[in-house]
Amino acid sequence: MIKVEELQLTFNANTPIENHVLRGLNLNIKEGEFVTVIGSNGAGKSTLLNVISGDLIADSGYVIINEKDVSHLPAWRRAGLVARVFQDPMVGTCGNLTIQENLALAYNRGKRSRLIPALNHKMTDIFREKLRVLDLGLENRLSDMMGLLSGGQRQAVSLLMSTLQPSKLLLLDEHTAALDPKTAQFVLELTNQIVKENKLTTMMVTHSMKQALHYGTRTVMLHQGRVVLDVSGEERQKLTVADLLTKFEKTRGEEVTDDTLLLG
Amino acid sequence: MSFEFFLGSLEIGLIYAIVSLGVFISFRLLDFPDLTADASFPLGGAICGLCLYLGINPWLATFFGTVGGCIAGIMTGWLYVRLNILQLLSSIIVMIGLYSINLRILGLGKYLNDEMDTWVGSPNLPLLSTNTIFSPFINEDATNQYIVQPLLVFIFVIAIWFLLNAFLNTQKGLALRATGTNQRMAKAQGIATGRMVILGMAISNGLIALGGSLFIQTQGSADITIGVGTIVIGLASIILGESIFSAKRMWAITLSVIFGSILYRLFIAIALGNELLKDIGIGSEDLNLITAILVVLALVLPKQLKKWKSKRGKSA
């Protein structure tokens, strides 16, 4: 159970470029829910994810994960609760470590690093088995440098890494945005599969309304730092992209001109 | 070049191999431009020298010297991590501060031995008759000194190379490498990156100070000036090793740093022994200038070579 209460966050407070990003945001996510998050640029989607993960600390409000108040914990202290896949494949993985070293880091996520070998046969067997599922041939390239992989491959591995340790919440921040359409589709399907198989509580930020409705069990729309739409269950099943777009326009109180961005 | 002169260069090359491995940790693994090295090298030497002067067991003295470097590294890391001072500035601050401390340490021996009434700093500390870690292995007329010293240092280098690689392949070592390359990812995996930087700086400067401790034991005196250019020599060795061996695996990269350091010393020795250079008046006082030029060449040449090659490839 994830609880976000009355989050307030202002960037560059008391300066000419002051930006009030989160304005009393509330959100409750039940265990096992797959929430897709949409909203226009600057609505606070990424900021919300960064506040939940601890990369940013909110000015006020609470982040409660699994009954634990983590509002003031730094990102690395929350890593045992929160797994993440970043938008940029370069951020989610270490290019100059090998594939198996990256996986070993994730295999130990949220735990104290100790003076014991980072890799052992048991681990590499697990890694090989997990990589085989990706069907990218990476199971034979365990000791290749991560930097040799393509963006899509790195995102796929990044996804895999997020499942190596149990987490209370998986955060996906437009994790297919930097990929070409075909690869993006592959990574999305893989995401869906992994989330379902592991019954992960997930928040996925996306720019595409189609994706937002197609994947997941619940859709949340953010606008100006607040939740303006929250649909799930039957109501959501009936919802079409056009409906969503109308609601989106209504909340913005203006015509959305760049349809491609939203429908894509 | 005589055989003895060759062994002497090899010995210094091996000592600086330890230093270069330290510089490698800060510069390459942590991406931390750390000038503390210029002060932690003489700090190790000063502490070790002081201990030897006071008659403390040489191995213990070497250990204390190393610990001194670790503390210097922790200071630099702490200034950067906890006080948010720029990396380069943090290290320069510690370096400047340590200069005074080193002078004090070098002067402390005479005060404690009642050769001085007040505790004043000194730029050097002669250690001619003191025991060193090498003493037990050197015969009475010191004829085997030129073999024993590089041999023992060589054992040090091999042991450190082995331990460093073992460490870098542990969970802690991996966390340290991840911190150096991708802090955001490291944090997302639950690594306390701040602590890792401080740990890495401690190990880095510990190794550099160990180099200083060994260096003064081969020189017969501890001197404040031995630190000048440590960082550049370390960098020169790393770059030399990298460009010659272009290794990929960690054990090979660290090994190339060691070879880089030895080769650098041999180059310097050849350059200083060169009759032509002697004729135009270049001597050992020009060592640092030669080093600076060597580093620039080593930094620029591989890139130029690549450019030249790709140009030729296009025209063909």
TrEMBL record, chain A:
Protein's cellular compartments: Cell membrane
Database matches in PROSITE patterns: ABC_TRANSPORTER_1, ABC_TRANSPORTER_2
Residues of the ABC transporter domain: 2-249
Organism domain of life: Bacteria
Keywords: ATP-binding, Cell membrane, Membrane, Nucleotide-binding, Transport
Main location: membrane
Record protein name field: ABC transporter ATP-binding protein
Organism, as annotated: Frischella japonica
From TrEMBL, chain B:
Primary location class: membrane
Subcellular location, record wording: Cell inner membrane
One Pfam family, short name: BPD_transp_2
Key words, A-Z: Cell membrane, Membrane, Transmembrane, Transmembrane helix
Family (UniProt): Belongs to the binding-protein-dependent transport system permease family. AraH/RbsC subfamily.
Organism: Frischella japonica
Name of the protein in its database record: ABC transporter permease
Transmembrane segments: 6-27, 62-81, 88-107, 146-168, 196-216, 222-240, 252-272, 287-305
Stored InterPro entries: ABC_transp_permease
Membrane topology category: Multi-pass membrane protein
